[in-house]
Amino acid sequence: MKNHAEFDILGRVGRISPFESATRVSICANYRRQEREGGEWIDDPHWNEVVVFNKRTRDFIANHVGPGDLVIARGKLRQSKFTDSATGEERYSTDLIVLDFGQLAKKQPEDN
């Protein structure tokens, strides 16, 4: 039996932060939901930051992807434990590690 924890995000790029061995990309997935009062449909954006380690994928992002582009990112979840240097407390974080990344559309001028 295979055990796994995976993610699949389809959304628009917010920020791209390249580092020496990884690139972080924030992606906004926009959900629609109905308000409790009045029943009006509204946007409900959720931001996620993914981490890309693969050099080829990082190069593709650096050369072809920009804020506002529609992308899909798939990968695995990894939980980390670390000690907060300011407080000395143990902290936990969950990283979204990209295994597959694709650009679906460039930002259009009307997408401002």
From TrEMBL:
Coiled-coil segments: none
Molecular functions (GO terms): single-stranded DNA binding
SUPFAM superfamilies linked to this entry: Nucleic acid-binding proteins
Residues passing through the membrane, by range: none
Name of this protein: Single-stranded DNA-binding protein
Domain of life assignment: Bacteria
Manganese found in the keyword field: no
This protein's UniProt keywords: DNA-binding
Matches recorded under InterPro entries: NA-bd_OB-fold, Primosome_PriB/ssb
Gene3D superfamilies: Nucleic acid-binding proteins
Record's keyword annotation contains DNA-binding: yes
